[in-house]
Design a protein that fits this description.
Mean pLDDT: 84
Radius of gyration: 23 Å
Number of strands: 24
Number of helices: 7
Largest sheet: 18 strands, antiparallel, barrel
Structural class: mainly beta
Helix content: 10-25%
């Protein structure tokens, strides 16, 4: 009964979302033509999200939805305007005006378009040269054990020097936008080494009335945490999909106005790299060979903000189709609307439902934000099954006494043993034996199928684009799942801006120049008995150089 209610509620919300197009525009604030301007999405690794988060922690961004990313550049410009109208002449913290000014410089073109300029652009966004040196054998199987590198768009890596050379371009023309991010990847020791070109992201968009449809390869992040999202993260390679995005929040009429501003995303995509499926009584697949008929995936997420301090979201994904399971109108509708649990010909697919929320803590509104994210596998709602769901919870401390430039974040993760189920139940399915993966990498959280873990970050901010950060990550896999194992990870990262488009990083004595680069030094220790990785250490140094037009 609960499954049926949730499905009907999602369909109702999808209908209202499209019907409410343009209904939330403040009078005299935005012209209709701005609502029809398309724009590309800001990459998830961009510095702008931490900057926006620090402004939101102080209450300057009441309509920012951090559990539904990435954001379009036009919506980022809208948030800049929103913050500018709320920051007082004498703010409580000295860095708020600095953050705002840096964001205004980043989105100057989009701000000009919102003020009347034409939406026309063709731009080289960045050139990247990244070198990742790993001493020792790394972990590369997050589906069964763990991974040394996580939340990195599924980039391959191995022992030795891994080199990634890439470029990204963006273009806009009125209601249309296009984005492409390509990369040449050289992994010398995995396991025979390879050199290949890869399109990480490539998509085209069309916008109307603050709604945007995007077709192509895309990366998503559906959660409030930094260590990942339980349902959709960038841990795996971006997925080929058609996505609908309500890029600007809307408010429903009547008593539904109590739900506050709302954002929504709906997608249908196709996975890659699945090797095994077992529909009905037939087994398809062979080791090391991807199936010709890959499964499909659809997902829906709705985020609500009933107060400026409280945000919550509901979401679900379903894997359906693939080898032995024809895709047609009937099977698609069954995957969307079926509340049954039948296998065989009436199998509705591999379903997951998630719920996340974040709240600015009373009495410490400008300093402390708490949040959690959970998902249930083949159950209607994680809050109804708290002991049989995966959970991620944490807090973000914006202001530390006497240390105004320091921020601290800590998160705990748990994918527990599930009663009356086999070990490693989460992210797995008896029909889709390759699990909840894309190109054999988990689409959800790196915590995996049955483990617990923690991650923490202490960051000293010199400026909006410059910081020094110390972080640690640990993970312990339950012994009943493939004999268990553990991982410990320590990381130091420095990032110093010299000019708006150029930065310098110093890492472990190495000195590099680059444009908007990511560089870090890491020490890891792990032990997984079944993989014969007993008590190994690996030291990783990451060096990235990005050059391009600003």
């Amino acid at each position: 009964m609960l499954k049926t209610f949730l499905l009907l509620a999602m369909c109702f919300m999808m209908t209202l979302t499209l019907h409410a197009a343009g209904s939330t525009e403040s009078k005299g604030v935005q012209q209709p033509r701005v609502a029809n301007m398309a724009s590309t999405y800001v990459p998830q690794e961009s510095w702008v999200y931490p900057a926006f988060e620090r402004l939101a922690a102080e209450g300057y961004l009441p309509t920012a939805f951090f559990s539904l990313r990435p954001w379009t550049r036009m919506d980022c410009a809208r948030l800049v305007e929103e913050a500018e109208g709320r920051i007082p002449e004498e703010p409580l913290t000295a860095d708020a005006p600095t953050l705002l000014q840096s964001l205004k410089e980043e989105f100057a073109s989009e701000l000009a378009r919102r003020s009347g300029d034409h939406n026309k652009e063709l731009r080289l966004e960045s050139l990247d040269q990244r070198e990742t040196a790993i001493a020792g054998r790394p972990l590369t199987d997050g589906f069964h054990f763990a991974e040394t590198l996580v939340d990195d768009d599924g980039r391959p890596f191995g022992e030795g020097i891994n080199i990634y050379s890439g470029a990204s371009f963006r273009a806009t023309a009125g209601p249309f936008a296009a984005y492409i991010k390509t990369e040449i990847q050289r992994v010398p020791s995995a396991p025979t080494g390879f050199f290949r070109g890869r399109i990480l992201e490539a998509n085209v968009s069309v916008a109307f009335s603050n709604n945007q449809f995007t077709l192509g390869r895309q990366s998503l992040w559906w959660g409030p945490a930094r260590s990942g999202a339980t349902l959709f993260s960038n841990n795996a390679e971006p997925i080929d999909m058609l996505r609908y995005d309500r890029v600007r929040p809307f408010v429903l009429p009547g008593f539904l106005r109590l739900l506050g501003p709302i954002r929504a995303q709906v997608l249908v995509g196709r996975l890659s790299g699945a090797q095994f499926v077992h529909p009905v009584s037939t087994f398809f697949g062979s080791p090391g060979v991807a199936l010709r008929d890959q499964p499909f995936l659809h997902g829906e997420k709705f985020s609500f903000k009933p107060t400026p301090n409280f945000e919550f979201s509901v979401s679900r994904t379903v894997i359906f189709g693939g080898a032995g399971s024809p895709v047609n109108t009937a099977t698609f509708l069954r995957s969307v609307f079926s509340a049954g649990t039948a296998n065989g010909k009436n199998d509705p697919g591999d379903r997951r439902a998630a719920f996340d929320a974040q709240y600015r803590i009373p009495g410490l509104r400008r300093c402390l934000t708490g949040y959690f994210d959970g998902f249930a596998d083949d159950e209607p709602f994680p809050l109804n099954y708290p002991t049989e769901s995966v959970w991620l919870s944490g807090f973000f401390l914006r202001c530390v006494p006497r240390l105004p430039r320091l921020t601290f974040r800590a998160e705990g993760l748990l994918s527990p043993h599930r009663d009356l189920a086999f070990p490693g139940f989460f992210y797995f399915n008896v029909h889709y034996l390759s699990g909840y993966t894309n190109n054999r990498q988990l689409i959800g959280s790196w915590i995996g199928r049955e483990a617990d873990g923690q991650q923490a970050w202490a960051t000293w901010h010199f400026s909006p684009r410059s910081s020094l950060e110390l972080s640690g990550r640990s993970m312990t896999v339950n012994r009943e799942f493939l004999r268990g194992g553990s991982l410990r990870d320590l990381r130091v990262a420095a990032d110093i801006a010299v000019r708006p488009e150029w930065q310098v990083r110093v890492d472990g004595g190495a000195f590099h120049c680059y444009r908007r680069r990511h560089s870090e030094m890491r020490h890891s220790r792990f032990s997984f008995p079944i993989g014969r990785w007993g008590g190994q250490d690996d030291d990783s140094q990451f060096r990235t150089r990005n050059f391009g037009a600003g």
